[in-house]
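Hey, quick one: can you model this chain's 3D structure?
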Amino acid sequence: MFGLDPVLFWFVATALFANFLNGFNGSANSVATMIASRAMRPSRALLLSAVAHFLGPLLSGVAVATAIGSTVLQRNASQLPVVWAALLATLVWSILASLVGVPSSYSHALMGGLTGAALAGYGLAGIKPAGMLRVLVILFTSPLLGIVAGYLLMRLVLFLCRAATPRVNNFFRRAQIVTATALAFSHGSNDAQKTMGLVTMGLLAREVIPTFAVPVWVVMACAASIALGTALGGWRVITTLGRRFYKIRPIHSFTSQLASSAIIFGAGLLGGPVSTSQIVSTTILSVGAAERMNKVRWGVMRQISAAWFVTIPAVAALAALFYLFLEKMV
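Sure thing. Here's the predicted structure for all 330 residues.
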């Protein structure tokens, strides 16, 4: 197939590389607190996370992929130049975020990319308002759930451990093997499915498949690429999440991982694409605040939040430029 269609080959290569970078940056989401709390050595933490990221997309279905691929853009706008432009813009943004060391939202970038490219080529008529609104509502409300869940869960854990001795930290260190695995599994299942959806859109646009149905080889390729990126790890982002908010102890790491994985996994089962970086960052923040408000370095959160708000318009503008180039080439 790819030998007969070099355009499709390079499109899929772009998608898998973007997925790889998502894993590279996203590795921080599942291992940063575990490394910072000294529950596991960095190399072992990244290996564990990579395995979970590989299994997540294989075992969690394609509900998120279907939501991204069939409910956001109109059929006439779901063309290869639009999807490719969105991927290229997301790729550029991910590289910039990695260099700066700021957690980037793959979901926000993709939504901004799809919106910008579709508007450049088809105007408002290229977008499904109900589907786009649903995705944006989920993206912007899930971090609020992270704040609430992290705060309440931390208060509960502190209450249950009010008479515990420092030896309880041994439990929280060991328990992170479970919670970190669950977080990596949920992150891999949610984020890799977004790439699956885009690749399937490209296959449908080139008439390789007759209807929107994610092929098995797409699932395998996306699972492998995000796992490889996770194994290599984005150390600048790991440092940001694991050290710059406050001094993370095992209780903080365990609680934030448990809250984050529950929200991300639940959203994935419902077909809701969420921003893992947002949810993890806000749960780390709220877990620290639940113990003591002045424990958190709020300035770091303001910097990260500013990057999130800039992501959608910036990537949309990039995608529009890429589309103007690609629609003449493809």
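One thing worth noting: The chain has a mean pLDDT of 84.
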